[in-house]
């Protein structure tokens, strides 16, 4: 016998199953009523009264009564089941609500636990970072050390600024002294052309301290005017004196002049030491001494001051040994 395939059978819903059960119960009740009614009609409509027909009718009637009581019991049982079902449904609903409330409560508790765990993790991380830092005492010591270093650095900076200021003042003074020496050097180039008249042979540039124009930046017109004035100011050569004794230059006077010049340079504060005379300058000085013939008056140099006036300086060769000149030095001191 082939097996019945139940996969294609449609399952009934609970409502359809209940309707099907009620229909079957009602069909049985109707069948029993029909049998009782049929026995009743047979017993009444029979031409001859058979004693067994009455008994059959009574038997059918008792069977119907039993079925009725049975159905009544079934109905009551079903009612009790319905009540129990409703109570169970209500209980399940209450339990479902309680479970939902419990789920919500557990969800809130879970969120709180997760938040607490996150906070603990963050707290642990912050605590690790804090523990990695030095203590308050160590930080106070470090701060004190840094403050001391800052104070020392400030003192060093102040010392450096003071040193720079002193160097600046020294350089300013050195520039001033160099300007004075430059003016003195320009004035020393003047010569005396006559014993009574002192005229500068060459005055180069401006002798004032406040002049800002360099020596090599004069215009062509100014150079021509300066050369013309110098040539016009030069007097004729003095005449010879036939009765004058023979002139012999002394080397001691030349060395004395040089020592005085070195003393003037050294007396100036911040001025560099004068350089040794070159052989060319020595030859020029000897040549100048040889050019002085017998009977001539030796021309002595004079210096030009910063205000444009000239001051006469006796040449060391014209002085006797041990004789001092009227002026203590060949160069003027720095102006106040």
Automatic annotation (TrEMBL):
Polar residues biased stretches: 228-241, 327-336
Protein name: Uncharacterized protein
Spans through the membrane: none
Oxidoreductase in keyword set: no
Coiled-coil region list: 75-163
Pfam families reported for this sequence: PAM2, THOC7
Region of interest (Disordered), ranges: 204-336
Keywords annotated in UniProt: Coiled coil, Nucleus
Entry keyword Protein biosynthesis: no
Compositionally biased intervals (Acidic residues): 317-326
Subcellular location as annotated: Nucleus
